[in-house]
Specification:
Order of helices and strands: EEHHHH
Strand order of the largest sheet: 1-2
Number of strands: 2
Strand content: 5-15%
Radius of gyration: 17 Å
Length: about 80
């Protein structure tokens, strides 16, 4: 299991599939693209790259997916609340 340090999410643990995904040239090219285009020229502190943003998004999506599969009892609670 690989880990990456992020300024927002702190330590992000990557699965084998996620590690393979971020090792592709398509994902790696995100290092050179700013998330907010040229806004960093006006606000120098806004230097978030698409790579960092994509890692955070992948972390949140993974967390939601694993929560859905690891907490089946939660589904029963939700069904109870709907009735």
């Amino acid at each position: 299991m690989r880990q990456v340090t992020d300024s927002v999410h702190e330590t992000i643990f990557l699965s084998e599939l996620e590690s393979e995904l971020i090792a592709t040239p398509y994902f790696y090219r995100l290092h050179d693209i700013y998330q907010s285009s040229t806004v960093y020229m006006t606000f120098p502190s806004n230097r978030t790259k698409r790579y960092e943003h994509s890692l955070g998004t992948m972390e949140l999506a993974s967390s939601m997916l694993f929560q859905q599969f690891l907490m089946p009892a939660r589904k029963q609670e939700m069904n109870y609340l709907k009735n």
